[in-house]
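Take a look at my tokenised protein here and describe the backbone shape.
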Amino acid sequence: MKKALSIDIGGTKIYSAYVDENGQIVSEVEKHATPKTADEIVALLKEIIAKHENEIDVTAISTAGGVNRENTKVICSTANLPFGYPKTGFKSLSNKPVFVENDANCAAWAEYKIGSAKGMDNNITLTLGTGVGGGIITDGRLLKGKSGVAGEMHFKMSTDKRRHCTCGAWDCFEIYSSGNGLRITGIEITGNKDITTYDIIEGVNKGEENMLRAYNIWQNNIIAGLIGLADIFDPDCIVLSGSMGKFCDVEYMEEIVNDEIVTLPTKILHATSGNYAGMIGAALLAFEKFKGE
């Protein structure tokens, strides 16, 4: 059975492990702090790959940022990775094939192949964390768009210019439905600029009125986005992943979404492919890409 060295590059940590063709992690997961410069990231990647290159068939990289259709380079980066990162020459990192894909797309593929969306050829995965990522699968294929970056969750929720998103635009879905969005809602309600998402969730668990209000506004903002996505893509299901996804009441969301959409009913599900979905999805996509080579 073939084996991939799968690497997940995030703003604070870089994980790596072996993943087999069944999507199983078959080694210990190594963890490194993400370096502060692009050159240091490249040096670390070279070190990781050189250590394992003789044991693998392909290197599969899940990364923050938009990735081109050829799965060879990052074409737009995110604020949590250093200046110059998109210039990384991934193909030159190894003598074996190297595959690169956006981390939310990788998570979506993992959910499709081994997780909550298994067997459903039309599905969407949202990674709800500090920000929001998205991966869209239509007719069993990952939707990439003309340049490779389809699935970015920065569609407008308002034209009032109420919240400035990290992407530079105003009132994106992300700035309302992310963990950061929940925090901002909490600040707006309480006036406490030091409040965190953890404070709000803890308050919800204790039944605190202001925290429940912030949570309900946040969840309804997510629902508004889900309604739009369901009407546009007509998915079998929408999977909620990421550190904030577990706090969503999917039964309530599914009821409201299906009451309002004009397409046929969809399912709203929690993710099940685990904390390393990015690495798993990257490996499975890489095996498909290089099938027969």
